[in-house]
Amino acid sequence: MSDAPRALPRALPSSIDETATLMSEADYVADRSLATVAFLSMRMGRPIFLEGEAGVGKTELAKVLSTTLGRPLVRLQCYEGLDVASAVYEWNYARQMLEIRLAEAAGETDRERLSKGIFTEEFLIRRPLLQALDGEPGAAPVLLIDELDRTDEPFEAYLLEVLSDFQISIPEIGTIKAPEPPLVVITSNRTREIHDALKRRCLYHWVDYPDAARELEILRRKAPEAPEQLTQQIVGFIQELRKQDLFKQPGVAETIDWTRALTELDVIVLDPDTINNTLGVILKYQDDIVKMQGSEASRILQQVRAEAVAG
User: Fold this and answer.
1) pTM greater than 0.90 (yes/no)
2) Domain that holds residue 106
3) Are both 71 and 106 inside the same structural domain?
4) From 40, 70, 286, 295, which residue has the greatest number of CB atoms within 10 Å?
């Protein structure tokens, strides 16, 4: 958890509208359905499970809840091979060995008592899942389990105890239970299916790409320095780009990056050369860039311009 100064914890929102307002305070433009699921997740004490393409704002939701509610953010970044030692806890073996040597030097000979003495919380290294159970009532942290689909199924199964009862069993100590359950956000890019047993413990929401109006509002909040005409052209171009047969469509994160990049280049309006030179900001695969460069990018830009004149 971060040691940076944090605002005092706020009470959980009492309505969907209040939840949407809370998100808006952190410039997170959520649709009504996401605000509803987030509200229910907080009120019911159930994890929220977010699926969707990369870059659509799944991870950002946990950060926004942490910031606006004044609660610590505990992040578990998932990856293949993630195990209990990295995600939950491990023993500080170096300190334990030092304690044993000091005890032996002092003449301690009772091995059983020595063994019990080094398996206490003093020697426990708390990893994200165990940290998330440490919150005080009214100030439980926000636990972000990011990209769960990258882990192996055995670890996914381990999460069932944590998400069912918000407790963790440590053989040498016993069961550690959260005084108050954390607010849990689980994300997945759907590179594999998550087991039904875990999904049943969560409230589910698919985070889709935003429509043009919402994406325009996002840019006005996240890149307010960009000229209005440029912002509208960017949104129109990105919306059309997502209709193309690409290996990876640009997410909202790429839209924001592109807007900021074009602003740094002092671009006022889109033109074919600028698009061709900056496609690497919004497209991350060479095949997609080659497909869009040149005439195809010009065609999309002309379509965007025509729609703007017609509208």
Assistant:
1) no
2) 91-121
3) no
4) 40
